[in-house]
Design a protein that fits this description.
The protein is α+β, with helices and mostly antiparallel strands and about 140 residues long. The chain binds tetrahydrodeoxyuridine (THU).
């Protein structure tokens, strides 16, 4: 059975919702939570962390990746993203690239529309970032 078919998407989404409670978003008031699932089944949380110098803001997904790396995890199978919107929020372009660095085959778990009892959506990261630039592209082109 593949990793994605054994994935407990609802549980991962719940972890993302819990992480969202910690968001620091006084400027946008748009709180985001992320939960990154590692290959060994560990769930690593992330939330957006804003700054009065707005451009320094870090998204929930990138906080989760940094948090995971700092804890020694490098292999990820899925990430769930939770916001307060009625429709699912896709990861921003910068987060797509950062996720792709470690997990080009990642599954992105998004909530069903508000009020729906449907299962969470599971979308390949490659759908959000087709033909992404990854570590192997760099090593292929380094001058001697
Ligand atoms: N944000 C995320 O945390 N993840 C995304 O993928 C999109 C945007 C945050 C950044 C900022 O704190 C707020 O949402 C509004 O852009």
């Amino acid at each position: 059975m593949s990793e994605s078919s054994t994935l407990d998407a609802r549980a991962l989404l719940e972890a993302a919702r819990a992480a969202r409670e910690q968001a620091y978003a006084p400027y946008s008031r748009f709180r985001v939570g992320a939960a990154l699932l590692t290959a060994d089944g560990t769930v690593i949380p992330g939330c957006n962390v804003e700054n009065v110098s707005y451009g320094l803001t870090v998204c929930a997904e990138r906080v989760a990746v940094s948090n995971a790396i700092a804890q020694g995890h490098r292999t990820f199978t899925a990430v769930a993203i939770a916001t307060g919107t009625a429709q699912a929020t896709p990861p921003c372009g910068m987060c797509r690239q950062v996720l792709f660095e470690f997990a080009p085959d990642l599954v992105v778990v998004l909530p069903p529309p508000e009020g729906s009892e449907a299962e969470p959506e599971q979308v390949p990261l490659r759908e959000f970032l087709p033909r992404g630039f990854g570590p192997s592209d760099l090593s292929a082109g380094i001058d001697p």
